[in-house]
Amino acid sequence: PQNPAPARPADQPDRRRSIIREVNAAPRFSPVPVKSDLTWEEFAKVNLYANGLPGVMADMHEARFYPFGGAFAHVIGYVAKVSDRDIKAIEDKGEEPPAILYNPGFRIGRQGVEKALDEDLRGEAGGNRVEVDARGRVVGEDAENSRAAIPGKDVVLTLDADVQNRALEVFGDESGAAVVMDCRNGDILCMVSAPSFDPNLFVGGVPGPIYRALADYERKPLLDKAIGGVFHPGSTFKMTTALALLDAGVDPTERVSCNGGYRFGNRTFRCWEPRGHGAQDMHNAIKNSCDVYFYHMCNRAGVDRIQETAKKIGFLQTYDIGVGNQKKGSVPSRAWKAEYNKNNPNPESRVWFPGETLSVAIGQGDVNVTALQLAVMTARLANARKAVLPRLIKSVGGKERPSGAAVPDLPFPREHLEIVRQGMIAVANDRSGTAYRQSQLGLGDIQMAGKTGTAQVRSYGTGSRKSNVWELKDHNLFVAFAPVDAPRYAVAVIVEHGGKGGATAGAPRGRAGFKPDVI
After folding, report:
1. Chain-centre distance for alpha carbon 19
2. Is 235 a catalytic residue?
3. What is the pTM of this model?
């Protein structure tokens, strides 16, 4: 029993109608709860007047409780009352709904691990065969024909509670997602989406006004942005483009002069640094995040090679981590555009033009990824050997799930990976790197490698990047791994419409994801 706020008079008619619906829908002889979360005073009154309330009883039962509140809301999910739709979904599969689903106190998984492993966590219902009098009071028990309940299986996740809680904390009022992975075996130590919500609200049935407020809020607290939200990766995609260029035979020492813009056709594509970066080879282009270098070089690889490289490094796919609702994202190619516009009567709409590759090369245009995919990319670059896969569920019922390290080698030459890795190391540790100040861990000689990203969500033309409208602000991203000499952790952070830069908004939150006591 708890002490909930008293129901308002306006709520009473709706509650009565709800109780009548539940009574009519319940199987015969199945109890129907008319009120939950009784105060101790209410609980005592029902028992005191039990003899005058035939068919009414007050009972105590266990309820799911989430001690960390919003920190694990999306990844673990929550349980809620069984609905008619749940029963119908089981019947539509030609199966008989388990009797336990009709128990008024039973809850079913609605999101995350709770939903994905609902049957494993559910166990099997038991029951006591009893004899009752005309008033329904128990007067005897048939122990021989009673059946003990079988508890659900224990599920162990790879998440680290300290890192998970800290990740949500550092987001503050911002919206976005963060994922931390172990570079060696793929274990996900943190997968958080912000803003979050209290899953305990849903266990007893969330009030309509509260649910509508959560659903209508522009920062979408009910959406799992780590795996179910897609974002332009911005400059964090440049490592993928660099690998595609190396695969195409581009000499990494070849230099491109950046004067702040690149003219292609009748359009000038601007670099983020209006003054220009000067002469840039591949290493410096990654370190300085020079757009002009990648504009100039990208068509030597071509959009098809960039897409193929993206697949190999971790994009354009979902992962078998035990939970659904993952988005695949998108990275264009010539075939992708032809299929996307197949119903367009204009044949030119299905033709890929070289000018379109420029936006793809810097993670804009139709490039969309998830935070989990960014973390996988970073872990693979850090590992530099294995195409490591993410793992969220460590074991179910004591049975260990496969490690993410039991995978093939990465399909890239080691020297190509090292060129990209050295560029990331320079981003965070060279004084002229785009995230030098924000990437210092303060752990002595231990350093991290990273890459910032700022992804625009609108076209500026000749206007300003700044906006006071939240949904028009840029996304800010940061990916990193540490320590650089023996990588253990990879982190990916997306700050949705942060309106700053990857170094200003993303890097400090990424830095907070590394645990000083275990690096």
Report:
1. 37
2. yes
3. 0.84
